[in-house]
Amino acid sequence: MPLCDLCVCFVFFVTLFQFTLPALIVILKMPSIIHYTNCPVCGSTDIYFVFSTKDNTVSKQEFEIWECKECTLRFTQDIPDLSFIGSYYKSEEYISHSNTSKGLINRLYKSVRNRSLVQKRKLIQKTTGMDKGKLLDLGSGIGSFVNEMTNHGWDVTGIEPDNDARTVALTSYNITLADNDLFKNLPENSFDVITLWHVLEHVHELHDYVVLLKKRLKENGKLFIAVPNYTALDGKIYKQFWAAYDVPRHLYHFTPKSMDDLMKRHGLKILDYKPMWFDSFYISLLSSKYKDGRVNWVRAIWRGLRSNIKAIRNIQKCSSVIYVVSR
Q1: Is the dihedral of CA 165, 169, 170, 175 positive or negative?
Q2: Which of 50, 108, 165, 173 could be joined to 97 by an S-S link, Cβ 3.0–4.6 Å?
Q3: At 114, is the pLDDT very low, low, confident or very high (cuts 50, 70, 90)?
Q4: Looking at residues 126-140, what average pLDDT do you find?
């Protein structure tokens, strides 16, 4: 081959390499995506697209919300897998991990949180009839609830997968939280109470997780599972702008029907439904911000109040529901 032809080939391949290498790097860095062809709760193939909604906290990406016609679960489609989802939690605005006071809404959230912690403690004591006992708190965030229960004599194990949140717990409350690895290695039948305050909607391996919950719970123990409820009035009003979809961090969007289905599949039963009244206001304020670009305080508060009024006669219509569950 003539020298000039070799030079041309060399330049061609160098140029090709320059253009394809960045694309190759992007492909290698892309996360594995989980695409559901069956409902994550009941396994039905009768699932359909509802709408797309935006990650307003971190990535600004659009994600699809799908629904199961059989059990009414909604779920986020094409989610990042477990190895990549952590990057979607890295934001100062994600209050459960950062304890931020940035913005008036988050400052209001923190001011109400102490009262909510007391209410949760009293709910557990009243439901179980116990003033003290062994408690496992999953998804402990910055450790506020663990601190509340520990200060009132409970023997508490707190588990939090996010290292930054564990650091905040240590500096704020002098509490050492374990990472997720501990959950799989805890002894069976060892806890009187297991709490998941807005945690189950984040769990990738849903059914395996519920199996572990049941194994860790004592025979007469109680689960307290709090999750958002998209059938609430504020969910219906804000639709794709409803902040509690919180994609892609919230993988599942439960209803009382879908939660009941999930529990029954694992030999668990829902004993009671309890309201989280403040959530409708907090979610409505955030939803207003996402929908209009700014918070319409009067309208958002009114919508949160309307949602609560509608749920007074039927707690299963509350913006967030606490499910009290037993074996």
Answers
A1: negative
A2: 165
A3: confident
A4: 98
d(CA 52, CA 60): 12
pLDDT tens-place string over residues 189-208: 999 999 999 999 999 999 99
Mapping DSSP to helix (H, G, I), strand (E, B) and coil, where does residue 141 land?
Answer: coil
Q: Give the HSE-up count for residue 8: Cα atoms under 13 Å, Cβ half-sphere.
A: 5
Amino acid identity of 1?
M
Q: How many residues does the chain have?
A: 327
Task: Return the ∠ at Cα 94 (arms to 285 and 228), rounded to 5°.
Answer: 55
Cα separation, 217 vs 74, whole angstroms:
27
Q: What type of residue sits at position 58? A: V
Structure tokens at 254: 């439960």
Alpha-carbon torsion (207, 76, 249, 269), positive or negative: negative
pLDDT tens figures, 160-171: 999 999 999 999
Q: pTM of this prediction?
A: 0.87
Q: Of 236, 259, 204, which is closest to residue 71 (Cα–Cα)? A: 259
**Cβ-contact 117, 146 below 8 angstroms:** no
Q: Residue 282: how many CB atoms within 10 A of its CB?
A: 22
